[in-house]
Write a structure and sequence with these properties.
The chain is of the alpha/beta class and 270 residues long. The chain has one domain: Rossmann fold. The protein is built from 10 helices and 7 strands. Strand 2, helix 2 and strand 3 form a beta-alpha-beta unit. Helix 1 crosses helix 8. It binds nicotinamide-adenine-dinucleotide. Nicotinamide-adenine-dinucleotide binds next to helix 1, helix 4 and helix 6. GO terms for molecular function: oxidoreductase activity, acting on the CH-OH group of donors, NAD or NADP as acceptor. Pfam families: adh_short_C2 (PF13561).
Length: 270
């Protein structure tokens, strides 16, 4: 309602932030990818859910409804990504790519990590986002879109028994900067570095090590709990949205202060 001749602005009434946009999310079958897919749909996007496990991608898309589609692909396989993008191009313009699919890799000291385990971790966590971005860039240039890569706090700090995973995430943060610089001003590219997020991936680590969620969550100064996947999704929506128009080449920690400590789990909990 007009007030002294001035337009009234309703705080928080801007509406959905991705209305009418198309967002492709890899690893959408569970965990952080699933949460990003659901949040993007809440923000008005059409979501293309991609996962190597077809049935899980289909289930996420089904839970969203008619504004979502599911497609199966191995993000680290060149032919699979080519076939995926034949389908994506057929569907029309693409506004955003979220590279979320990843693997935890082996939990072991350097000499205990087998070369095939190392290669598989690099293949999915680094070659995957590279192949997906390479295929998506021509479409994103058309729409002036953006990319978000899910890296990790372990891409910033050393961590025992993470000799394959940590290096892939450090490299992914650097790769994101390459994307940002190579394709400015048409495409923005940013990464998110989560702390420990309560997903099936971290549950598997808890099961393997026998740690309970609260003990593991103690690495986070802010909450002393594992981070809910939705917290990463909220940050991702922000980076995709117009609110982040002037942000590119950045890495955003969503880690409840973990990186601010500069310390490792072992040091914090001993
Ligand atoms: N959970 C955490 O604590 C945490 C912390 C930091 C970063 N991350 C990163 O966030 C991302 C998601 O992690 P999450 O915890 O949700 O994992 P998750 O294991 O729960 O889910 C990963 C999803 O990716 C899919 N996937 C795996 N390999 C694939 C491939 N080659 N092609 C297509 N899909 C594939 C899986 O099927 C699964 O649905 C990963 O990149 C992970 O490294 C996770």
């Amino acid at each position: 309602m007009p007030n002294n001749g001035q337009e009234t602005v309703l705080v928080g009434s801007r509406g959905p932030r991705l209305s009418g946009q198309v967002v492709l999310v890899t690893g959408a079958g569970q965990g952080i990818g699933q949460s990003i897919a659901l949040r993007a749909a809440e923000e008005g996007a059409h979501v293309i859910c991609v996962d190597i496990r077809e049935e899980t991608a289909r289930a996420t898309a089904a839970s969203i409804g008619h504004t979502s589609t599911s497609l199966q692909a191995d993000v680290a396989d060149e032919q699979s990504v080519a076939a995926l993008f034949t389908e994506v191009r057929r569907m029309g313009p693409l506004d955003h790519l979220c590279n979320v699919a990843g693997v935890a890799g082996p939990q072991g000291a350097v000499v205990d990590v087998r070369p095939d385990e190392w290669d598989e971790t690099v293949r999915v966590n680094l070659r995957g986002p590279y192949l997906m971005s390479r295929a998506a860039v021509p479409l994103l240039i058309e729409t002036g879109g953006s990319i978000v890569n899910i890296a990790s706090a372990l891409g910033h700090i050393g961590w025992r028994r993470e000799a394959a995973y940590g290096p892939t995430k450090a490299a992914l943060i650097q790769f994101t900067k390459s994307l940002a610089l190579d394709y400015a001003p048409r495409i923005r590219a940013n990464s998110i570095s989560p702390g420990a997020v309560h997903t099936p991936m971290i549950q598997a680590v808890l099961d393997e090590t026998g740690a309970d969620p609260d003990t593991y969550g103690a690495i986070h100064p802010l909450t002393r709990k594992l981070i809910p996947p939705r917290a990463i999704a909220d940050a991702c929506i922000f980076l995709l949205s117009r609110d982040a128009t002037f942000i590119t080449g950045a890495d955003l920690p969503v880690d409840c202060g973990m990186l601010a400590t500069g310390r490792t789990t072992q040091e914090l909990t001993q």
